[in-house]
Amino acid sequence: MPAPNEITPKQLLRLIGTPLCPVIVDMRIPDDFAADPRLIPASIRHSHTDLTGLVRRLKGRASVIACHKGHKLSQGVVSALQAEGVAGEYLSGGATAWADSGAPMVPVAAVPFDSEGQTCWITRTRPKIDRIACPWLIRRFVDPGARFLFVTESEVRTGAALFNATPFDTPDADFTHEGEKCTFDAMLDRFCLHSPALDRMALAIRAADTNRHDLHPVAAGLLAVSVGLSRQFRNDQAQMEA
Q: Most exposed: 60, 80, 90, 128, by fewest CB within 10 Å?
């Protein structure tokens, strides 16, 4: 019978990508992480030796703690969090069980983390479809704390250098259209996030963004919604949140 503060990989997989997803904390020790430098989607890295910092970082939000195999390290951290009044569960079997289940894992080398373990992205102003879908994907599956900057197309490269930001969905960027596929497709490839649900989304986004409405029946509606949102909001950050 599962412990009351335990969650299985299958249960967690159903939450990732949804607004109900808890903060997933990878607490593998450095040697274990080096042996498999991939992250459960949407997870953050934090050391088990800094519980005070973790409590501050969680800001009262519920969490799932994942260590190597779900034994004493993660269970001890969950107990310590609960003693501080912070809801927490440990991942049954840890990151090892997650990997063995065949669920997606994000290669850390593919994510442009800075020295503080954060990401900053930059793209053209007035985002629509692909430039809205990509931030959604990043925040829900790659880096929940990612920052996004929107500037005129001619200033993307300069802004990237000034703010140590990664350009996306703009010509010559590392993350952009490849052939008939969109930047959203490219990110699924680079971050190893393919799943039936995300692949269906990718097809709809591609159909709307490239004006190939024959590819998916929701393409015209998605385009209309995107154009409507861009006319409702003058502030690109507000539009992205909406």
A: 60
